[in-house]
Design a protein that fits this description.
heterodimer; A: mainly beta; Porin; 0% helix; 67% strand; globular; B: alpha+beta; Alpha-Beta Plaits; four-stranded antiparallel β-sheet; 4 strands; 42% helix
Chain lengths: 205, 108
């Protein structure tokens, strides 16, 4: 079986404003990702992503390289909140140590999120398909900000994520993280319940 | 009489209220500094813009024009919309960004 896993950096908006570049990284023992995308319009971004996956016992690993398309499907702007539905899809190639050669992959996914200045919640699902094989990553996040920060202040959040990556394990991985947002910087650091550290970041320019 | 009139006009023209008129927009959906970067960056690049101030708590964006220049209000509204937000209200205020920031800090 081939598990095809691509970008799923489940953060705030997965793209920046029109004509901006966004870089994203997500690093843990079982999943490492580096993504860059460019916002062609306020609702559409194209990019590239490279992801490395491995099982906990290192017996299986694979790397995916994809072109990505991100689309803001729907946004609700409210006086004290914002909610979004995103489409995130990829197309590219995958290689691994437990199957031969290089295979083509496609990976459509969806993200829904809701955010106020103090609360955050999101859910993601992505399916990975290649050569008759189907795999997936699903995750859900929720978090609370320690205080309401203004535009030019650093805002700390406590975020908890539950994530299931079918290539790695059938179990959900739960990871509490500290999130810091300051202007164009977005950083999260934490460790899952097995003590495996995780670091992710986003930057817009 | 003429001298008094000139003095009054001079005093009026030098008062802060006469010196600058900023554009103040109330914006829905502006909850995250990371996501609101586009507003500041894109409006700052406009030729008539002297200063931009974003207040997440009050959900306002204030734009101050350069001396002797007029803001393109329509273009600013489009930039806010392009950044992904909805405008609720747009008004002109006879104050600079610095004055509005100071007021908001005082009123916290």
């Amino acid at each position: 079986m081939i598990g095809l896993l691509a970008s799923l950096t489940a953060h705030a908006a997965p793209m920046g404003f029109k004509d901006s570049w966004m870089t994203m990284g997500d690093f843990s023992k079982t999943y490492r990702e580096l993504t860059a995308n460019y916002a062609l319009t306020p609702r559409d971004a194209i990019g590239v992503t490279s992801t490395y996956m491995q099982t906990n016992n290192h017996s299986q690993s694979q790397i995916n390289n994809e072109l990505t398309y991100t689309r803001l499907v729907k946004r609700w702007n409210m006086p004290e909140a914002q909610a979004n539905i995103w489409f995130i899809g990829g197309i590219g190639e995958t290689r691994g140590n437990y199957f031969g050669g290089t295979k083509a992959t496609v990976s459509p996914g969806i993200q829904a999120d809701y955010e106020t200045t103090r609360l955050y919640a999101s859910a993601n699902a992505r399916i990975y398909i290649a050569d008759g094989i189907t795999n997936n990553i699903v995750s859900a996040r929720t978090g609370v900000s320690f205080y309401e920060a203004n535009y030019d202040e650093t805002q700390p959040w406590l975020i908890v994520e539950a994530r299931r990556m079918s290539m790695v394990s059938d179990a959900y991985e739960v990871t509490p993280m500290l999130r810091l947002i300051h202007n164009r910087f977005f950083v999260e650091a934490g460790a899952n319940f097995h003590g495996q550290p995780r670091l992710s970041f986003m930057y817009i320019y | 009489m003429k001298k008094t009139l000139i003095t009054m006009l001079l005093a009026f023209s030098l008062s802060p209220a006469f010196a600058v008129t900023s554009m103040k927009a109330t914006v829905n959906g502006m909850v995250c500094a990371f996501c609101a970067q586009g507003i500041e960056k894109r409006i700052s690049k406009m030729p008539a813009t002297k200063a931009v101030y974003v207040d997440l708590k009050k959900k306002i964006v204030v734009v101050e024009p350069k001396d002797g220049m007029t803001l393109d209000q329509k273009a600013i509204i489009e930039e806010v919309k392009d950044a992904g937000y909805d405008l609720v209200k747009v008004e002109s205020v006879p104050k600079s960004v610095a004055e509005i920031k100071a007021e908001l800090v005082t009123n916290k």
